[in-house]
Specification:
Shape: globular
Strand order of the largest sheet: 6-7-14-10-11
Helix content: 25-40%
Distance between the termini: 13 Å
Bound molecules: uridine-diphosphate-2(N-acetylglucosaminyl) butyric acid
Length: about 300
Amino acid sequence: MRIEDAKIVAALNDLGVELRPSAWLAELTSLAIGGTTDLLRIHKHETIPDLLRLLDSHGVPHRFLGGGSNLLVGDGELSWVVLQLASPDPDVVLEGNFAQVDAAADLGRTVTYCAKHDLGGMEGLIGVPGTVGGALRMNAGAYGMQIGSYVREVKLYRAATHGIEILRGEQISFEYRHTSFAADDMMLAVKLELPSKSFKEILQGIRICNEKRRSSQPLGQKSAGCIFKNPPGASAGRMIDELGLKGLSVGDARVSDRHANFFVNAGNATAKDMLMLISSVRERVRSAFSVELEHEVVIWNA
Ligand code: EPU
């Protein structure tokens, strides 16, 4: 979608919002799939209510993009614009055991920065790509930990009230790859409380998780992590593997040979290829195990 109305362009400029026309979302997603649309980069949280009022009053549909690492975007010209937070400098501020982190901060860098200051707990998340905001919204987790356990406060833009709010950790529910945030809430910043640990000890934990990840996941390939959530008490990856579906392809979309719940873009896969592969695998799991797999990856196709 292109914003061509000069009035909107001028208002964006007044708000200090950067307009990047016809951004190619394949370049902004870890799957390297996705069509084009205008990208609006937000440099100040405080401008968001006015920005959203502007877009709503002109009937411009929009979506919030984080790090693009758990996302499958449709092909071609997209029918909504994308909003993305620019990362401030610094994006992590420490005070005792608390880390005040901007939602646009890179998750891996945040974990490392905290580790260097003897704050641990998030060792399992070191290899998870994406932003802190994305990890927060999905309650990212790995190797027995989840980010939600450390959240004490969240600053967010609430579309329902058109305002910026601060929620306390107890007001938010964090479940397996799910949170109580509304779909149109925009994560802005988070205050984490992290346990004190020596850098050496944290590094050891990080090494162990990295090793496990390297040996079981296709790290060098373009993917969005696990495509499906694990059904209660079962493993989506193991079920897909048991059906002999590793290597199954539609165009360049392919079930990873290393981990069957990772679907990779092995070249020039389109969203259409990936969606066909997803529904074909889902169908086979349904008929073999009578289990309805739920997407973990967020799909922006309509
Ligand atoms: N397995 C197979 N074949 C496969 C893949 C897995 O037999 O192709 C088996 C493994 O041998 C193991 C079991 O299935 O016995 C579980 O596999 P794994 O330990 O790799 O964990 P997972 O349940 O597949 C989850 C998360 C990952 C996270 C890892 C490590 C989900 C959907 N996935 O994977 O998170 O990194 O645990 O904690 O919850 C993500 O969220 O995108 C993600 C990759």
